[in-house]
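Write out this protein's structure.
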Amino acid sequence: MSAGGEPAPGEAATRAGGAATAAGDGPQPGKVRRPRAPRAVVAAIVATVLLVLAGALLYDVIAVRAGYPTRRWRARIAEELATRHLDYLWALVGAGAAVLLGGVLLWLALAPGLGRWLPLRPHGDTGAAIDRAGIGHLLADRVAGLQGIDQLRIRISRRRVRVTLIGAVDPVSVQRQLRDELARVTLARPLRLDVRAAPGAGAAG
């Protein structure tokens, strides 16, 4: 900071470079991992177990087709399934465990994950994230005072912001406003901004 309260040339360049990076026009920051829900670990474990079991079963079936004898474990399972009744204790226990596992997997599939959270640039060892809906509210508030906007739709994905404007408004001006607002959100991976405009209902007359 120079005398008189004005920023030094080097400091001003640093601030401008930081704003350009946040808006997606500068160099990409270091890679930051996205927050992942605990269900991702459970899904990976279940998928690995099922893949191993399916691979072993497929290998044994191909071996039998090629003329080799059936593995003892598959013959034992087939024999147990053919001779045991449905009221057998271990059959009931296995069915209950399968139902419980299916319920847990169904709950994990329907439960909201962390895909709606976007990571921010870390400060030291501290990491944070922001909700995509929160970014949408920030952008909507930024252009709320502009004249000529009849309707505004904002859709935010993990990599892009799609804005649809309806009304007699200059999309370039709106894009400039939204780009400045995105620059204030220090995202670890800047979002691409796509602004599209369509004439309003009264434009035809």
